[in-house]
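Two quick folds needed for the group meeting slides. Do the first one here.
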Amino acid sequence: MLASIFVAAQTDPTVLLGAELSLIGGSAKVGSGRYRIAEVDESDPLFRFLELDVAVLTNLEADHVSPDGQARPNYHTSFEALQEAVGSFAGRAKHVIYNGEPRWQLLDALTQGRPRSSFGLLTGDCHAKEIALEPFGSRFELVWQGQVLGPVRLQVPGEHNITNALAASAAALVAGIPFEAIQQGLYQYTGASRRFEKSGRAERGPDRGRLRPQRHQTVRPAQSRPQHRPAGAGRLPTPPLWPQ
């Protein structure tokens, strides 16, 4: 999403992603502009040494943590070691965008003392209001530092994509990207490969009861929702994403 915004802003960024994005013709793009955007994974412990203008932290869970505490390539020895790496990652950035929702309080603690901005579905420096969920997208008003900037429309489903859009918007706003480019960039983003791709339509068969829970978790974001989201309604988990 962040790459799509910077492309819409005609900044010709250099982009490095962990999945293919049709907008840039693959998973990487070498641009001539001053911006470099990368999706960084915690599976490489060296991410802690990156020096960034803007770092975005969407969540922090015990992922890529060694089960027995032994040092291994692409694994942290403990959750505490992962937290330390995230703290170093945030500490080397000039500005940190972090998920300020209550379930991610650890990110608030790890970014204390840094120039920072928070985002969240309904609260934070960057949040949404007037959310309307649609079968394969959503609409909402984007709020930045108490000011309603205007409407945003997404072509990817689910609340988790709204949250990701808020994170990308906050990073773009801190970088000085105009809101009109953010609107266009988010709307033109139709998803990355292997991340909820629409590939066809399946008909029910005689064994339709099997794998029902798994199917429900996949289909749920694509189902139509009420036009206005009631406070306290359930939320979908946010997938890991580390754009800078």
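Then this one, please, same format:
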Amino acid sequence: MMGSRQTEFSSGPLKCCVCRSVRTFMRGTGLPICSNGACLSEYYRLKQMGTPVCLECGVYLNSPRERCERFCSVQCRSQYTTTQLIRDSQSYAAKIQEQIDVKLEQLDCRNDDAAPVIPAIIPHNDYLLSQVSDERLETFRTATFATIQDAFRQHPDVPTELPEEDHGERMHPETVRLVAEACSTCRGWCCRYGADRHAFIDVSTIQRYRVNHPTASAEEILAVFMMYAAGESFQGSCIYQGANGCRLPQPLRSAVCNRFLCDGVRTLIQLGVRSDVPVMCIAAVSGTVVHDVRVLDRVS
């Protein structure tokens, strides 16, 4: 037991399980003890007493603190934790992949080539869908109109240039498509952050609208944003987040909404440009459950 533990897991030099010294092991015993004869006697005594050993390196634990923590050192505890995390991660990935494979078979979309299907893992919104209440609409209306008024007060003249947040490179149309597919499959997990922040609509969002609609009044701008607020929305999420994704057209969304990409979406975009990935798919995962798998067509 002691020897197998050290041989399998220890990344550093093997230690005598009794005196913890790194030295030549006693030949012919198959035991993790050094050539000191006293350690052999002590080894059998400790074993007979059922003395606990370090979970990582297998040496006998001497002090009450070591026996309580089950490790002989901070280094061993750290190494053991890392090993367990790797094992748990591998086990988790295997469970998720197994569910994805089953759903791909149901969709008749398994890849016949040797290359495996590499999914983009995205979160899954478990919130309930319900009709937006009048109270929630009124709260949103009040907050949005206050932001619009701030924009007119801070910038009395009609702007002619887009706000700084809108400068820079635009997304490629194919990237926009992939993002939309991913977010609708996810059902807006990230969008829940927009609930209390009123869809992240800020002065810059209003200024962008004013550039494109220079004659619009504050009331007319409010009417446009409220037009998309009514309907069904996920409880606890952004008011615009409906069953099929965001109801607010992209030109009206805040810079935060237009630019934020979760890790799963970034993976999907990377897969989209790889020629060695014949099948692109999105898997919406919550905990250890794969709720939805969507296979995407490639656009050449």
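Slide caption for protein two: Residues 2-77 form one domain.
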